Structure formats: structure tokens, C-alpha cells
User: What shape does this take?
Amino acid sequence: MTTSCDLSVDLTVLDAASVLAIAMGGTEDPYRGATPTRPLVVTGAAVVGAWRSPDGVVKLQLRGDGTYAGEVAGRRRPARGTYRIEGESVVLRDDSGLNTPVHVHDGELEMAGHRLRPTA
Assistant: This one.
């Protein structure tokens, strides 16, 4: 926006915390006072074992040697291959080269819309 004197006017909208931070000579720190958290990391021991969806449609066996075997109801060929752990996820790689991400949440695995729980 310009006036007849060609002065430039900055129309930036600032909230009270931003204005206070500028006045105090610093910037607002959104993490001030927050408890530092460690990134979530899955270990092999947390996922090794047999897993099954509550309806029994999906079964997955994760072995300690980095291989897996799985079954999906209605599919002729069982799934098998290797897996690797990446942060808070497990990535399955089947014999054809297809990668399937599996997310770990609260002691359960989520894979392609299915929740898998450890079998007893």
C-alpha cells in the first residue's frame, strides 16, 4: 500500500506474543517449557512374533532373523520376504520387491488399514 508520499506500509499482523518477543529483543520460542521427548524407535524385540487381525483376515509372523511370513484371507499365495525397522515403523519387502509399511502404535501393528495384535 502506498500513500501520496510513496511511503511503504507493512500490514503484517502480529499477535501479542510476537509483539512482546520483538519488544524484548528476541523471538518467541514455541518449545519453551516443553518436556523434551525422544523420537520413537521400534526395536526388533518389540515386533518379533505372531500377529493377527481381530477378524482373522490378516496373519503375520515376524521372525528374529529379519524374515516374515503372512497370510491374507482370500489370497492364494502367502506373503513372505524380509523386513527392516525404520524408526517407529517396520517395512515389509516381499519376494516380488513390493514394500509395505507397517506402523507400530500402542503395542499393535497397522498394515494397509488392518490392526494386528500379538497372538497369545
Q: What stands out?
A: Residues 44-118 form a domain with the Lipocalin fold (CATH 2.40.128.290). Residues 81 and 95 are 5 Å apart (CA to CA). The longest helix spans residues 16-23.
